[in-house]
Amino acid sequence: MMANSQNNEKKIAIVGAGISGLHCAKILKSKGFNVTVFDKNSEIGGRMQTSEIDGFLIDHGFHVLQTAYPETSKNINYKSLECKPFKSGARIVSLNNGKIRMKLIADPWRNPIAGFFSLFNGFLSFKDLLRFALLRRTIMKGKIDQLFDGNDGSTLEYLQERKLSNNAINRFFLPLFGGIFLESKLQTSERLFRFIFRMMAKGKMVLPKNGINSVPFTIAQEIGMDNIRLGVEISRIENKALRFRGEAHRFDLVIKAFNEPQEGDGKHVWTVYFDAPKSPLRSKHILLNSNLADSSSIVSHVAVPSDIQPSYAPSGRSLVAATVVGDRAIEMGLESEDSIEESVRNDLGTWFGDGTVSTWKTLTIQHIAHALPISNPGERLTNVPKNGDDAIECGDHMLHGSVEGAMLSGRNSALIAINRLKNNSEPVQGPKKKV
Fold first, then answer.
1. Cα–Cα distance between 242 and 144 in angstroms, integer?
2. Which domain covers residue 181, as residue numbers?
3. How many independent structural domains does the chain possess?
């Protein structure tokens, strides 16, 4: 009780009300510190935002939660958010000789019957299926931190080294992981690929009932909305002071929980949402575009969030989300909303029929800049959050671009802050390993 009483006298400011800053604040508040979170925006959540348009819940960019993320799962109650899962595996759409084919790639480890039958659909060779199984077995071994050890080449190089065919890489891994990493060449570090692959193999992709923003909102409620100040533009950040609204405000410690990306820094994405009379998909899977590498097609994947969570759409309607990674759009010279919408409608019309897609209403065309930090090979990507010896900073840009990266970075910054205020001396680095 004495320690908590002493902590209550320590004032900490956190600048940034994204999930990393909120998680950091929650931990510090639980230790008895006087914490105030500031954000220039009028809503909490950073990139995890949800809007309502014509009765549809529209996440800012297509989002899912991964139930296998360790830190996230410890702190997010999926049951209280009424999360529901996508089906494991994926549907694949291909255009060959003018004919559209859609095939199911089921996960044989979770759905043995469907997985068995998908072995014979001809989409992947038996040699690729065997190498896929060996890849899975390798990645599932050992501790999570070990996935960030060893080589640090690109995802493409990693898959090629494991003798997966160009067909398997281009038709399955590229649309799936290109859509996750938001880049079209699979140049993201193999370390992040191994981590995400393992999380997908162990857990489920789920959506909360009330949109992705319900995740940061739940954390904010634990902090207390009275401790969060929105719409505050910070003009200057120092280790123990903030300047806003023309005045300096002193704190015992200031934590920066946002990134200041430069031009060309970070990955961007286009997401086009449609109001459809009914779902174009026959199952609760994500649809992957297997022709992405060798055609003028642009959509990486299509999802129907309302198939998973009916709350995402008004009764009798379906919400369709099409994702276009930013570098693919640039490569094809598409930089305006109109050109993106036209190209997306061309793809979807080819797959589902022009007559069907022409009845869909475009709800919104989102272009999200700096949607993810760049995690290229050679950056020595780890699962150990980093921080400097001076200012404390958190966010997925400090670790790796995922909800888990943001949560781990927030926790690490909280531990560094606790040690620093406790010792009241030289800055103390956070834990070397995830605990």
1. 38
2. 56-206+265-372
3. 2
Do 28 and 131 share a structural domain?
no
Q: Residue 3 pLDDT more than 90?
A: no
Decide: 307 and 330 in contact? Cβ < 8 Å. no
* Residues 250 and 240: beta-carbon distance below 8 Å: yes
Give the H or E element holding residue 371: strand 361-372
Tell me the HSE value of 273 on the side-chain side, using a 13 A CA sphere.
25
Q: What is the average per-residue pLDDT within 316-335?
A: 95
Give the bridge partners for 392, in sequence order.
255
270 and 391, same domain (yes or no) = no
* pLDDT tens, residue by residue, 71-121: 999 999 999 999 999 998 889 998 888 889 888 876 755 554 444 445 545
Pairing state of beta strands 84-85 and 253-256? unpaired
Contact 83, 245 (CB under 8 A): no
Q: What is the mean pLDDT of residues 390-414?
A: 91
Assigned domain for 429 exists? no
Please, how many CA atoms are within 13 Å of residue 375, restricted to the half-sphere of its CB? 31
Shared domain for 16 and 63, answered yes or no, is: no
Q: Which residue in this structure is represented by tokens 């999926």?
A: 78
Sequence-ordered alpha helix ranges (H) in 203-249: 214-223
* pLDDT, tens digit (0-9, with 9 covering 90-100), for 193-220: 999 999 999 999 999 999 999 999 999 9
What pTM value is reported for the model? 0.90
Burial 268-282 (b: 16+ CB within 10 A, else e): bbbbbbbbbeebbbe
**CATH number of the domain encompassing residue 40:** 3.50.50.60
Same domain membership, residue 131 and residue 68: yes
Same domain, 228 and 299: no
Tokens matching residue 170: 């281009």
Taking only Cα atoms into account, the Rg of the chain, rounded to an integer number of angstroms, comes to: 22
